[in-house]
Each structure stands twice: as structure tokens, then as C-alpha cells.
Design brief:
The protein is of the alpha/beta class. Helix content is about 65%, strand content about 5%. A five-stranded mixed beta sheet has the order 5-6-8-10-11. It has a two-stranded antiparallel sheet with strand order 1-4. It has a two-stranded antiparallel ribbon with strand order 2-3. About 50% of the residues are buried.
């Protein structure tokens, strides 16, 4: 027993070791440097904005991006991932800050905030040693979708006051209840900045499509420059970032925070919640990166990396971090291939913070509010919204419950409730998944049952075709097992998914199949689906899945699939 435990610990230490990251740093130096600089430019306005929404201040947002970039890069499990403050994490720490204020002043207790962030990092390190991070892959899609839509609503509503030049209200309920007061006291001068800023954020990407050189400049950066110049030239009487800094400015920029471990019992609950969200937020972003690069991340090492990043953020006075989808995608598109890009991004932000503190102080809050408005709009899950009427009732209930609870109560409570409802609703499928002795099958075409039952297309057997045959249900509890079964496949040009033994598919299963097929298409592997139950076919039709994969790649009759393949190869 002791030997098994020691073996497990040694394996985990090896798994989370940063050596994989370190030895890759010299493999793409030029590309990583250029990508890191570009991503830093993208990250700057977002870091400022997320710092503002967290109630810890814009400078804290930059420190969070610095800590995430450097420490997440050195220790993380996704080689192309870029870490920093994200909308969900910023919203969560903001919710906690209502409980941690200094006396009756209503000023946030920064020592408490950064102690919680530090403790969340310690918890993440512990989670990485336990090897349980990978279970995040079993989160139902409607939970994630409801959560992201809820965050979008929170971000937008909480920035209403800043958008119109008023003091930001920290609580979404407070914003809604005092909406009349907000309308009556609008600072018209703030609209001179916020409305043009929002316009730029929407229009600039369209301009970039027509003028390629402009597409390299991120819209949030243009927004910051234009918004700040407008406020300066017009001498507008509106709130600025510098209003929350002391006269010296520099004192607020370089301050170390020693975690108050004497209040650990008081902080441990929020710290666990931050850690749980960091795992969810980070690993979902890593999955996006996996699909884009074809390289699978290490969940445990990524969790360890986020632990180190959040511990550093807590000491440096930074907003809590996670792997950020937008920055990670940008890093991949701009040529980043190793953690060096993330580290460079962190160092560039440090250089900016060190040399341009006064410039940062001159940025109007209304400009950041416009950026956050756009973030709130973009973070919504537009994949699920158009098909809400056609998805299974259980998935709809989970989505709506998570959305409602996220907005009106708490992020982590929403996720927990959503997962519980999904598990209870899929109890039968979960039991079958655990009890079933049937494994998902992957075989060459010649050894598959659907081919052996066909006598008309013997020539097809000579083609590089594999057949994947899932068993039971394709739902949030089985998707990872199906993908794992396929991961050991030999080289092939065509994949046929035989769904003759599939009894049920949920929304998680549909979108997993859709993403899976998109990844294969990028690798020039053609995918066909056959033998689908009529109920599943109706669901595929309603969610637009059949249109996405192409109707010519789908048929109930395997012989039609074989005929189509034979004619294409003839």
C-alpha cells in the first residue's frame, strides 16, 4: 500500500515537473518573441479592465497578467497557453470582496483579497498532486454554456455605471435596484468616450478584414488610445484610473502583500471556490488550444502552473489568474509554440507597467467599461442560444438554472447545482457507463461488423478507413472515453462512426462530436456517420449538426456510405 502511494506521488511529481516546458523554450525563439509581444499588447487593455471589475484596481489586473504569463508559462501544462485575469475569475473575486472591507469605510480589504488568491494557489498545487484535474472534462456542456452566459450578463450590467461616468456599483442587484438613479445622474461627458469606444470595438475587426495590416492591431488597444486621447484633448470631467491611485502612483504599482495566514479559516471557503473556477476556466481554454494545435495538454501540470501563478499573484498584488482563451488563441495564431511566448508576454507587461504608470493613470474608466461591455457580449455562448427550443429538456433546464443562479447568486453554486441536476437526470446513463463491460470499439474497415455484413463493396476494404463504434450513450460522462478510444488509432484518411449501439446523445455529446469532426477535417480525415436512431437523428437535425457535418456524410444505411466512398475514390 505504501509502495503504491509512493509510486503515485513520484508519478505526479514527474507529471507536474516544469522540465517539459523548460527544454522547449529554445525551439521557436523568434516566433515566440514576436507572438509574446503581440499578445502582451492584446492583454494590456483586458488586464486593466478585469482589474477594474475585480474591485482590486486596474494595476492589480496587470500584475495578475504578469504573474500568469511568467509562472503559468514556466509551470503550465499547455505549451501554448497564456494565463492572466479572466472575466469569470474577476467577477468571482469581485463577489467575494463585498464580504472583505476595511471597517465601515467600504474600501476593499486588499490584504484579505490577495491572501485568498495566494491560498487558492496553494489549493491548486494540492489538487495537481491528487491527480483529479482531468475530471473537469466531464462537466456537461449546458453547465458551461449557462455559466458563460451568466458571466456575460454580470459583466455587462456591473459596468453600466462606469459606462455613463458614475461610480461603479459592486453588486448586480444594487445596479438593477438603482437604475432610475443611474439614468437621472448620467455624466454626458463620459458618453463622449464610452460610445465611440464601443463603436470602435465592433467596427475595427470589420476594417481589419478589408485592410490586412490593420488586423494585426487589436481593437481594445485602439480603443484605449482613442478613448484616452479624446478625454485628454477635450479635458473631460469624468472618472480616470488615476483617481484610485495615490499622488505618487508608483507606490501603488510596486507593493508586496504578505499572506495573512492567521485568517486561513476565514479565507479557505472563497479560496476553494477560486481554485475550482481556475481549474474549470483553465482546462476549458486548454481544450480549445488542443483542438487548434492537435497537441493534448497535461491537466495536472496545468493545474500546478495555475497554482504557482496564483500564489505569485497573491504576493505581487495581482488579480487571480487562469488560462485565458482569447490570449491563448491569439498566441497560436501569431506563431507561439512554446511557453516562451507566455513568459515574454508577462515580461513585456512588466516593462509597460514600470515605464508607463502615468499613462495608465490617464485612461478613462468609461473606456474600460466599453471594453468590458464587448467582453461581456463576446463571452456569451452563441452556440447554444439559437437552438434552445430544440435541445433536450434536461439540457435546457440545466442551462437556465445555471444562468439564473450565476447572475443572481454565486458562480460556483451555479456550477455545482447544474452538475448535480445533470447527473441526476442522466443517472441511468451514468450507471450504464460505469457498469458496462462493452468498450468503445475502433477497428479497420475490414474487421468492422457493418462491413462484414455488406457484400457489395469489397474494394472499400483496401482503403485507409477506420470504424469507431461507441456503445451506450454519448453524453458528458462518456465523451472523454470515446475520444480516448480513438486516440490510439492508426493512420487513416476516412473515419466511419457507427452509432448502431448508441442509445442516447445529449448536447455535450453533440458538440463534442462536432468539435471532434472539425479537428479531423483539419487533419484531412473525412468523417461519415451511419446507423443512427430516429430520435437521435431528430436531435441532430434540430441542433444543426447535420448541416454542420454535411448531409452527404450521413446515412442510416452503411451501404450508401460505402457507395459514396467508393465513387469518390474511383
Amino acid at each position: 500500500m505504501i509502495n503504491m502511494f509512493l509510486s503515485f506521488i513520484l508519478n505526479q511529481i514527474q507529471e507536474i515537473s516544469p522540465w517539459t516546458n523548460i527544454k522547449s523554450l529554445n525551439k521557436n525563439i523568434r516566433g515566440d518573441f514576436l507572438s509574446g509581444i503581440t499578445v502582451a499588447v492584446i492583454a494590456l487593455p483586458l488586464a486593466l479592465a478585469f482589474g477594474e471589475i475585480s474591485q482590486l484596481g486596474p494595476i492589480a489586473g496587470i500584475w495578475g497578467a504578469i504573474a500568469g504569463g511568467i509562472f503559468g508559462g514556466l509551470f503550465g501544462g499547455c505549451l501554448v497557453g497564456v494565463s492572466g485575469p479572466t472575466a469569470p475569475k474577476a467577477a468571482q473575486i469581485s463577489a467575494f470582496m463585498g464580504f472583505f472591507v476595511i471597517g465601515t469605510s467600504n474600501h476593499p480589504d486588499l490584504v484579505a483579497a490577495f491572501s485568498i488568491i495566494f491560498l487558492s494557489g496553494l489549493i491548486l498545487v494540492a489538487i495537481s498532486f491528487l491527480g483529479i484535474s482531468r475530471f473537469i472534462h466531464f462537466t456537461p456542456y449546458p453547465v458551461v454554456a449557462g455559466f458563460m452566459c451568466g458571466i456575460g450578463v454580470i459583466v455587462i450590467i456591473t459596468q453600466v455605471n462606469a459606462f455613463v461616468g458614475l461610480e461603479v456599483r459592486k453588486d448586480i442587484h444594487d445596479v438593477i435596484l438603482n437604475l432610475d438613479d443611474t439614468i437621472q445622474n448620467i455624466n454626458i461627458q463620459a458618453l463622449y468616450v464610452s460610445i465611440p469606444s464601443l463603436f470602435i470595438l465592433f467596427v475595427w475587426p470589420q476594417i481589419g478584414k478589408k485592410i490586412e495590416i490593420l488586423s494585426k492591431i487589436p481593437a481594445p488597444l485602439i480603443t484605449l488610445i482613442v478613448g484616452t486621447m479624446m478625454a485628454y484633448t477635450m479635458n473631460l470631467n469624468i472618472p480616470y484610473i488615476g483617481d484610485k491611485m495615490d499622488n505618487s502612483g508608483i507606490v501603488n504599482i510596486f507593493t508586496l502583500y504578505i499572506p495573512d495566514l492567521n485568517r486561513t479559516i476565514e479565507f479557505i471557503g472563497p479560496a476553494f471556490a477560486l481554485a475550482a473556477l481556475a481549474v474549470l476556466d483553465s482546462l476549458l481554454s486548454c481544450k480549445v488550444a488542443d483542438n487548434m494545435t492537435g497537441v493534448r495538454h497535461s491537466s495536472d501540470r496545468e493545474t500546478f502552473g495555475q497554482g504557482m501563478a496564483n500564489m505569485a499573484a497573491g504576493i505581487l498584488g495581482g488579480v487571480t489568474t487562469a488560462t485565458a482563451t482569447m490570449r491563448t488563441v491569439a498566441n497560436i495564431k501569431f506563431g507561439g509554440k512554446t511557453p516562451l511566448a507566455s513568459i515574454v508576454h508577462g515580461l513585456v507587461l512588466f516593462a509597460i507597467l514600470s515605464g508607463l504608470g502615468d499613462v495608465v493613470a490617464a485612461i478613462p474608466n468609461a473606456c474600460l467599461a466599453a471594453i468590458l461591455f464587448k467582453v461581456g457580449i463576446d463571452i456569451m455562448d452563441y452556440r447554444i442560444i439559437p437552438v434552445l427550443k430544440k435541445i433536450p429538456m434536461l439540457d435546457l433546464i440545466v442551462f437556465l438554472v445555471v444562468l439564473f443562479v450565476t447572475v443572481y447568486e454565486d458562480l460556483m453554486i451555479a456550477i455545482a447545482i447544474g452538475i448535480v441536476i445533470a447527473m441526476l437526470g442522466n443517472l441511468k446513463q451514468l450507471k450504464q457507463a460505469f457498469k458496462s463491460s462493452k468498450k468503445h470499439e475502433l477497428s479497420p474497415i475490414s474487421k468492422s461488423k457493418i462491413f462484414q455484413e455488406s457484400k457489395d463493396f469489397t474494394g472499400v476494404s483496401k482503403l485507409p478507413i477506420n470504424v469507431l463504434k461507441p456503445h451506450g450513450s454519448i453524453f458528458f460522462g462518456s465523451v472523454e472515453h470515446i475520444l480516448k478510444a480513438y486516440s490510439n488509432s492508426d493512420k487513416h484518411q476516412i473515419l466511419i462512426i457507427d452509432m448502431g449501439s448508441v442509445e442516447m446523445v445529449d448536447l455535450t455529446g453533440i458538440y463534442a462530436l462536432e468539435d471532434f469532426m472539425a479537428t479531423l477535417q483539419e487533419k484531412n480525415v473525412e468523417v461519415f456517420i451511419t446507423q443512427i436512431d430516429s430520435k437521435i437523428e431528430n436531435l441532430f437535425e434540430g441542433t444543426g449538426f447535420l448541416e454542420t457535418i454535411g448531409r452527404d456524410h450521413f446515412s442510416d444505411d452503411p451501404n450508401i456510405i460505402f457507395k459514396s466512398i467508393a465513387s469518390r475514390k474511383a
